[in-house]
Amino acid sequence: MSLIKAREKKSIELNSGINLEILNAIQALDKFECTCDFGDIIDIKFQNLSRSQTDKIYALAKSLKPWRKGPFKLGEIFIDTEWQSFIKFNLLAPHMDLDGKLVADVGCNNGYYMFRMLNHHPKKIIGFDPSIHTALQFYFINRFARTNIVYEMLGVEHLPLYEHKFDVIFCLGVIYHRSDPFKMLKELKSALNTGGEVFLDTIYIDMNGEFALSPKNTYSKIPNIYFIPTISALQNWCERAKFKDFEILATKPTDFEEQRKTEWIDGQSLENFLDPNDSSKTIEGYPAPKRVYIKIKI
Fold first, then answer.
1. In whole angstroms, how large is the CA radius of gyration of the chain?
2. What is the pLDDT of residues 164-176, one digit of tens each?
3. Average pLDDT, stretch 275-290?
4. I want to staple 98 with a disulfide (CB 3.0 to 4.6 A). Which of 37, 122, 179, 271 is the partner?
5. Which residues contact 36 (CB under 8 A, 6 or more apart)?
6. Residue 106's beta-bridge partner residues?
């Protein structure tokens, strides 16, 4: 599908039904006087916010559940998201050099990581995610933050056709959702400027050897997970996609500090995804989630 057709399709979906109602409600919000702190909590501080305005913002935030990535604070409203996303960002931050660079966040969700990147002074940030739900969350937060971040409701498959190439691409928690990880890596590579780099993380299998787990139906109750590699297999994937300088930045088990159920999500979270009698295994009997964070270059 071409970029034009993909954009047209998403525009039609966004401007129909409940999506349009929410979008109109976001656009109808008052223009508030506020300041923004893009720290671990994306903190929007309002001036002279009335109780009725606070209630309206709260109701709209609740209508946008589930909130996966964050957290966010809008005045006295704390959106306690499922993921404490600052844990991942703070692992990566010491390895970032975004100053003056054109940056993409592929699979950007609601934009939490992009808001955090602003403190690193990139030239421009463009997020890619085909989810209308997370796009609406981004528009909601950015209504107050008023940043110049661009949100494209496009997927990684559209990168080779996109009008810009990038100096740095973040692709966090995406590759195991793709049925062809080699193709995805090549799409990322095609979107880089000379000397560009990719920050990537994935769930991995903590074993020796060059192989990947392919779950039969679900992994941690997630149906759209296709391949979970060992680190050696991941390195092979990257090298076969013609990346170089495979650098492991960190490895970390996913724990209850980082991912847990809150009032701001619907359904279950990590505690429901693991074997209740053995937390080293998923409910299906696979090894429990661990993540590896890497940086690769062209």
1. 19
2. 999 999 999 999 9
3. 97
4. 122
5. 42, 43, 44, 45, 144, 145
6. 128, 171
Grade residue 161 by pLDDT with cuts at 50, 70 and 90.
very high
Closest C-alpha among 61, 22, 56, 44 to residue 265: 61
- Cα(first)–Cα(last) distance of the chain, in Å? 27
User: CA 270 to CA 289: how far, in whole Å?
Assistant: 10
Q: pLDDT per residue over 111-132, tens digit each?
A: 999 999 999 999 999 999 999 9
Q: What is the pLDDT of residues 129-154, one digit of tens each?
A: 999 999 999 999 999 999 999 999 99
C-alpha torsion 234→236→241→242, nearest 10: 120
b/e for 108-124, b at 16 or more Cβ within 10 A? Answer: bbbbbbbbbbbebebee
CA distance 56 to 60: 6
Q: CA nearest 44: which of 62, 58, 63?
A: 58
- Write out the two tokens for 130: 């085909």
What proportion of the chain, given as a percentage, has pLDDT over 70? 100
Question: Bridge-partner residues for 172, per DSSP?
Answer: 201
pLDDT 10s digits, 60-107: 999 999 999 999 999 999 999 999 999 999 999 999 999 999 999 999
List Cα–Cα distances, 24 to 19, 63, 129, 280, in angstroms: 9, 13, 21, 45
